[in-house]
Amino acid sequence: MSSDLKKEIAMQNEPFAGQERELRLQSRVIEKQKEMIEFLQKHISKITDIMMDVTEYHAHVFLYNPLLFLLHSSAASPILVNIIST
Q1: DSSP assignment string, 38-86
Q2: What CA–CA distance (Å, rounded) separates 49 from 4?
Q3: Under a CB-based contact definition with an 8 Å cutoff, are residues 59 and 46 in contact?
Q4: pTM score
Q5: What is the C-alpha separation between 86 and 82, in angstroms, rounded?
Q6: pLDDT band, residue 48 (cuts 50/70/90)
Q7: Distance, CA of 51 to chain centre
């Protein structure tokens, strides 16, 4: 193969090499974004579970102690709430 032909082929392939590098970089960015989404989903799920546990606890306490619910729902003194809940 002549050197002129090699140079011409190299010049034609040059834009493709840049596009290939850009595609590899974009692929890495997308992979990191997927990892971040999975990380956030896992932690949001944990936070949601904790919130549900707290909500269920308060629902249980207020269901079995209506006076405590009334004190919490009004502007009652925190001292009274602590006395009744113990």
Answers
A1: HHHHHHHHHHHHHHHHHHHHHHHHHHH-HHHHHHHHTT--HHHHHHHH-
A2: 68
A3: no
A4: 0.48
A5: 6
A6: confident
A7: 15
